[in-house]
C-alpha cells in the first residue's frame, strides 16, 4: 500500500469522529469562537508535534505490529513501553466505548427517539432516563460489534472505505450548507420567551395564542406556563406574563454578522436556561419550566478541552499498518502529517463557519431542542440534515469497530513480548490469528465505559490515556536525540529535540488542564505498571534510551566525583570483598558476603573480587563460570554491587591487581574485607599465611582499611545470632604509618574494643 491508501486515508478515518458531529457546535457556542479556536489549535499542535516525533522514531527502523507500543518500548525500555502500551490500550478501548455511546446518542435522539425504553416527563429527570437508555442500547451494540469482530476482521476492513466515504460526504455537506447559507439560509426558527430559549419539541406554534375559526384560543405554550387552558381565571408564570414570545432565525447565514455575538464565551452551571444576551427581557425571575432549553452539564474551558481532544487522536493509524506499506519510512511521515494538516484545517474552518452561520443559543443547545430535535450541525448542512445524521451514525459505528479491532491486537503484542507475566494468557489466539481472549477483555473494559453512559464523561478519560502515550512518544524522540545514540539515524530529518520537548510539555499541560484528578489517576496506573514490570516482569535488553541515559548520568556523576576528595560527612565504607574459591569454583566462605551485607545495609559501593590461578587464555571459561556463581550468591545474600574476577599466574599477584585496579574514578573501594587463614598453624603449605601477610602489606601501602573476619565458617546468617556465635572480627586500620589491631567482641549487640600494641613488628610477630 502507498502513502494515500495506507496512511493518509486511515488516519483521516481515525481522526474524524463523533466529536466533530455531536459536540463541536456546542464547544463553539459555549467557549465562543476565539476560545474554541484556541482549544482546537492547541490540540492540533499537540498531535502535529507528536507526529513529527513519531515520524523520526518510525523511520529509525522497521515498526512491526504494535505501533506506538513498539516504538516507545524499544526507545524507552520495557518498563516505560509496557506502562504506556497498556495506557494506549485502555485509551483505545475507552474510545470504542465513546464511539458506541455516540452512535447510540445519534440513534435515540435524532433517528428513532421513540425507541427509548425509559422516559420521564420531568425535564430534570429526563437526563437520568436517557443514561439508562444509553446503557441498555450501548451494551447491545457492543455485543453486536464484538460478534462482528470475532467472526472476522476482514468484514470490518471491507466496510472501512464505506465508513470513510460517509465521513467525507458529511463534511462536504457542511461546507456546501455554509456556502448556501450566505445567500439562502435554511429555515429553522427558534422560539424565544423574552431572552430565554424554548424547546420546540412539544410546541405547535411559537405564540401565546393562535387563531382557530376566527377565534383566539390559548396555544400549547399557554398550557405549559399557565394552570388553566382558559384566558379567564388562569394563573400564569410571572416571567411568561411580562415577556413576549418571539421567533428568531436559528441559521442566520454566513452574511448575517452573527459571528460578532458568538466571539465570546458563555459558560453556565448545570440547570441554567440558555439565553440570548442581546434580546430584550423583563427583569422578572419566574419559575423553572421544562419547556426551556437547559444546560445539562456545568461547563468550563478545562472541561471542553477534555471533551474535544479525542477528536484529534488517531494519528497512529499509519504506523500501526507499517507492515502493509510499500515504503513505510517514506509513507508514515508524509501521510500522517498531511492527514493532521487536513483535519486541523477542517476543524479550525468549521469553528469559524459555525460561529458565523448559526445563532448562539442554537450552538449552545447540545441536543437541538430549539430546532425541533434536529442535529445542530445538520441544520447547517446541504441538501438535508439527514446527510449528517446518517453519515455520522455509520462513521461512528465504523470507528467503534476499528477500535475493537485494534485494541485486542495491541494487547496481544504486549502479551507476546512477555514483559508483564499476568498478561501472558492474552497472547494466545485462534487458529486464524485472532486474539480471542484479548477481545473478551477489551469488551469487558469497554462495557465499563458504556455503563458510565455519558459521552462527556468518557471523553476526558480516554484523553488522559492518549495524552500520556503522546507524551512518551515525544520523550522518546527527545531522549534519543539528546543522547545521540549510535543507532539513532532516522530518515525523517525535520525533527528537533526542542519540538519534541514542546510537544511533551503541551501533552502534560493538557492532561492537567482537562482534568487534574484523571491525570493523577492515569499517572498512578502507569507508575504501578512500571514498578510491576521492573520487579516482576521478564528482563529485556532492547538497547533503549533509558539505559543510555543511565550511562550518561553515571559518566557525569563519576566526573563530578573526580573534582576533589570526599568530605568527611559523605564518607562511607566502600568495600572490596575478597572471596576464596575451591577446586570446583564454588565460594569457600559464603558467610563473608552475609557479613558485608549486614555491615553496609545496601549503601555505598560493594565490589566482590576473586582470583583464579592460571593462564587467562586457558582459564577464560572458568572465570566466566565463577563470575556467574558469585553473582548468584550475591543475589541470594541480597548484596548489591559488582563482581570482578582476575586470572593471574600467582594468587598474591592477582589479589594485588584487584586491590590496585578495582573501581572507577571516584567510585573506588576504601576498605578491603577478607577471611582469616584457617588452620595456618597446622598447614604444611606456607603460602596461606604468606598470601595473607602480602595482602595486608598491599592494603597498607594503598592507604586502605582492612576488615578480617575470623571463624567465617560459623558466621551467623543474621544479626540476632551474633550473641550465640564465637566470632572475632579483626579490623586493621592504617593510620599515619602505624597499624592497629582491634578485635571486636560482639555480645548482646554491644561492641567492646581492646587495642593491642601499635608497633608494626609486634603486630606481625603476633600473626606469626
Automatic annotation (TrEMBL):
One of its GO terms (cellular component) is plasma membrane. Residues 590-708, 722-753 form the SLC12A transporter C-terminal domain. Residues 7-179, 298-576 form the Amino acid permease/ SLC12A domain. It catalyses: K(+)(in) + chloride(in) = K(+)(out) + chloride(out). Pfam families: AA_permease, SLC12. Its main location: membrane. It comes from the Eukaryota. It is found in: Cell membrane. The chain crosses the membrane at residues 6-24, 36-63, 83-113, 134-153, 159-178, 292-312, 332-358, 437-455, 461-482, 494-511. GO terms for molecular function: potassium:chloride symporter activity. GO terms for biological process: cell volume homeostasis; chemical synaptic transmission; chloride ion homeostasis; potassium ion homeostasis; potassium ion import across plasma membrane. Coiled coil: none annotated. Gene3D superfamilies: Amino acid/polyamine transporter I (1.20.1740.10). It is a multi-pass membrane protein. Keywords: Cell membrane, Chloride, Glycoprotein, Ion transport, Membrane, Phosphoprotein, Potassium, Potassium transport, Symport, Transmembrane, Transmembrane helix, Transport. NCBIfam families: 2a30. Belongs to the SLC12A transporter family. K/Cl co-transporter subfamily. This is Solute carrier family 12 member 6. It comes from Canis lupus dingo.
Amino acid at each position: 500500500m502507498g502513502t494515500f491508501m495506507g496512511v493518509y486515508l486511515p488516519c483521516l478515518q481515525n481522526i474524524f469522529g463523533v466529536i466533530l458531529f455531536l459536540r463541536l457546535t456546542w464547544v463553539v457556542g459555549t467557549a465562543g469562537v476565539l476560545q474554541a479556536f484556541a482549544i482546537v489549535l492547541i490540540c492540533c499542535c499537540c498531535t502535529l508535534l507528536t507526529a513529527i516525533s513519531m515520524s523520526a522514531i518510525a523511520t529509525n527502523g522497521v515498526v512491526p505490529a504494535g505501533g506506538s507500543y513498539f516504538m516507545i518500548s524499544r526507545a524507552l525500555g520495557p518498563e516505560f513501553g509496557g506502562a504506556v502500551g497498556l495506557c494506549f490500550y485502555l485509551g483505545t478501548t475507552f474510545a470504542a466505548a465513546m464511539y458506541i455511546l455516540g452512535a447510540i446518542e445519534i440513534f435515540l435522539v435524532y433517528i428513532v427517539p421513540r425507541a427509548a425504553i425509559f422516559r420521564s416527563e420531568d425535564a430534570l429527570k429526563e437526563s437520568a432516563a436517557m443514561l439508562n437508555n444509553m446503557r441498555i442500547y450501548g451494551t447491545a451494540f457492543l455485543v453486536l460489534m464484538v460478534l462482528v469482530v470475532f467472526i472476522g476482521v476482514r468484514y470490518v476492513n471491507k466496510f472501512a472505505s464505506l465508513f470513510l466515504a460517509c465521513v467525507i460526504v458529511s463534511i462536504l455537506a457542511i461546507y456546501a450548507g455554509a456556502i448556501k447559507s450566505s445567500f439562502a439560509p435554511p429555515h429553522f426558527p427558534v422560539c424565544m420567551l423574552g431572552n430565554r430559549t424554548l424547546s420546540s419539541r412539544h410546541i405547535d406554534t411559537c405564540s401565546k395564542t393562535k387563531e382557530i375559526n376566527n377565534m383566539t384560543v390559548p396555544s400549547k405554550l399557554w398550557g405549559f406556563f399557565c394552570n388553566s387552558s382558559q384566558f379567564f381565571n388562569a394563573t400564569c408564570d410571572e416571567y411568561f406574563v411580562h415577556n413576549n414570545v418571539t421567533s428568531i432565525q436559528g441559521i442566520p447565514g454566513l452574511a448575517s454578522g452573527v459571528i460578532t455575538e458568538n466571539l465570546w464565551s458563555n459558560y453556565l452551571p448545570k440547570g441554567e436556561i440558555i439565553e440570548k444576551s442581546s434580546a430584550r427581557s423583563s427583569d422578572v425571575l419566574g419559575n423553572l419550566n421544562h419547556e426551556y432549553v437547559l444546560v445539562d452539564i456545568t461547563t468550563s474551558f478545562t472541561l471542553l478541552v477534555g471533551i474535544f481532544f479525542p477528536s484529534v487522536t488517531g494519528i497512529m493509524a499509519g504506523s500501526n499498518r507499517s507492515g502493509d506499506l510499500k515504503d513505510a519510512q517514506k509513507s508514515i511521515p508524509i501521510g500522517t502529517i498531511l492527514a493532521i494538516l487536513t483535519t486541523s484545517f477542517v476543524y479550525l474552518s468549521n469553528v469559524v463557519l459555525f460561529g458565523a452561520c448559526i445563532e448562539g443559543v442554537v450552538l449552545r443547545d447540545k441536543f437541538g431542542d430549539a430546532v425541533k430535535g434536529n442535529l445542530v450541525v445538520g441544520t447547517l448542512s446541504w441538501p438535508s440534515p439527514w446527510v449528517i445524521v446518517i453519515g455520522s451514525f455509520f462513521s461512528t459505528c465504523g470507528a467503534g469497530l476499528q477500535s475493537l479491532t485494534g485494541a485486542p491486537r495491541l494487547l496481544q503484542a504486549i502479551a507476546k513480548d512477555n514483559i508483564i507475566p499476568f498478561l501472558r494468557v492474552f497472547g494466545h489466539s485462534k487458529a486464524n490469528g485472532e486474539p480471542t481472549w484479548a477481545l473478551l477483555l477489551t469488551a469487558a473494559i469497554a462495557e465499563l465505559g458504556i455503563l458510565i453512559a455519558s459521552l462527556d464523561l468518557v471523553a476526558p478519560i480516554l484523553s488522559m490515556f492518549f495524552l500520556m502515550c503522546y507524551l512518551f512518544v515525544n520523550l522518546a524522540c527527545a531522549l534519543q536525540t539528546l543522547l545521540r545514540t549510535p543507532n539513532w539515524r532516522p530518515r525523517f530529518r525535520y525533527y528537533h529535540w526542542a519540538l519534541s520537548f514542546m510537544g511533551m510539555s503541551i501533552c502534560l499541560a493538557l492532561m492537567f488542564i482537562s482534568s487534574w484528578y484523571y491525570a493523577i489517576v492515569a499517572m498512578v496506573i502507569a507508575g504501578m505498571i512500571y514498578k510491576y514490570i521492573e520487579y516482576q516482569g521478564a528482563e529485556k535488553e532492547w538497547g533503549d534510551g533509558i539505559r543510555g541515559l543511565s550511562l550518561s548520568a553515571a559518566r557525569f556523576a563519576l566526573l563530578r566525583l573526580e573534582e576533589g576528595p570526599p568530605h568527611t560527612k559523605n564518607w562511607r565504607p566502600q568495600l572490596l570483598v575478597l572471596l576464596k574459591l575451591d577446586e570446583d569454583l564454588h565460594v569457600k566462605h559464603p558467610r563473608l558476603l552475609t557479613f558485608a551485607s549486614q555491615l553496609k545495609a545496601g549503601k555505598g559501593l560493594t565490589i566482590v573480587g576473586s582470583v583464579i590461578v592460571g593462564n587467562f587464555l586457558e582459564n577464560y571459561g572458568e572465570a566466566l563460570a565463577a563470575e556467574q556463581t558469585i553473582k548468584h550468591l550475591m543475589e541470594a545474600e541480597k548484596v548489591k554491587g559488582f563482581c570482578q574476577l582476575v586470572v593471574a599466574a600467582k594468587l598474591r599477584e592477582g589479589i594485588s591487581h584487584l586491590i590496585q585496579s578495582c573501581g572507577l574514578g571516584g567510585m573506588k573501594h576504601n576498605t578491603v574485607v577478607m577471611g582469616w587463614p584457617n588452620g595456618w598453624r597446622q598447614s604444611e603449605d606456607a603460602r596461606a599465611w604468606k598470601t595473607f601477610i602480602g595482602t595486608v602489606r598491599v592494603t597498607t601501602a594503598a592507604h586502605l582499611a582492612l576488615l578480617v573476619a575470623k571463624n567465617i565458617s560459623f558466621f551467623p546468617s543474621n544479626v540476632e545470632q551474633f550473641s550465640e556465635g564465637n566470632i572475632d572480627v579483626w579490623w586493621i586500620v592504617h593510620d599515619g604509618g602505624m597499624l592497629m589491631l582491634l578485635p571486636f567482641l560482639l555480645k548482646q549487640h554491644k561492641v567492646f574494643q581492646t587495642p593491642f600494641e601499635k608497633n608494626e613488628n609486634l603486630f606481625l610477630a603476633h600473626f606469626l
